[in-house]
Structures are given as structure tokens and as C-alpha cells.
Amino acid sequence: MTGARRLSIVPDRVRSSAPKRKVGALRVAIATQDLRSLDAHFGSAKRFAVYDVSADDWELVEVLSFEEVSDESGKHRTEGDDRIAPKVEALKGCHLLFCLAIGGPSAVKVVSAKIHPIKVPDPQSIEDVLSRTRTMLKTAPPPWLRKVLAEAGATEKKAFDEED
Description:
This protein has helices at residues 85-91, 104-112, 126-138, 143-152, and strands at residues 5-8, 26-32, 37-38, 47-53, 58-65, 96-99, 116-119, 124-125. It has a domain at 24-68 and 84-148: Nucleotidyltransferase, domain 5. Helix content is 24%, strand content 23%. It has a 6-stranded mixed β-sheet with strand order 1-5-4-2-6-7, with helices on both faces. A two-stranded antiparallel ribbon has the order 3-8. The longest helix has 13 residues, at 126-138.
């Protein structure tokens, strides 16, 4: 079985692992087939576009590519034919994962890796997803996103009685 192939934007130095996250930014992965749209289920995604998103901007940091993906048939794979674990391993360090769908067992693995999966009902452009994420960061993030931000070190963690 093959792991992920990484296409990273390398500024000044060569690295062998995921790029370092921009301070104050969330690392966001988007399941995509064409690198222009959020248009894939987690298991069948051939690629994940990974961005650092802050309230001010976003930046593509890498593209993860997978040759072995689910066929969305709903049939369980044979023992040792795990196509999900390499994806989860490659996505470690991401805070949010946007996809069209994700199965229960995959969601458990993603959440265990401290990645918050977000199912989006219809395909849409990556730019729209990033723009909405940035707007949420600028305005009043929902409670689940405030928790992700605090865990990511992107904001100060407030005591429960200090929240709005």
C-alpha cells in the first residue's frame, strides 16, 4: 500500500514532513478531486488541498495525493486493506477537514487525530469554503470553532464564565 504523496510549497528550505503552520492560523484540509472544488467524500478523495487560514487571509501550504481510494461502494475492505489510516496520518496537524461525506469509522479516526470533520452538503469552490472559514474567524466563531481555535493556539482560551 502506498502512503500519501506530498506536494508542499517550500519557501527557503527542504523539509520531509508537513510544513510548519502559520502562527494564529488554522490548518484546513479540503477533500478534492480537481484542486478547484470541495467535491469529494473523505474515503474517495484523491487529493486534499491544505491551507493555513487566518482572519486576514489564506495560503496553500501543500497538496496531499492518494492513489488508493475508496470506491464508495459501501462494502467493507479485507483485513490489511486500510485506505483510511494513511489519509488520517497524512492529515495530522490539520484542525478542520471539509468533505462531502465521511463514514462513521473514518470520522472516529479523524476525530481521534484531533481533526474536526465538517460535512458540506453540495460541491462548492475551495475559494468559497476558505472565504466562509475566514469570515467565521473574523466574526463570532461558533462554540465548536472557538474550541478548535483554543486547541490550535490561535486564540486565548477563556474560562467558561468569561464567555459571552
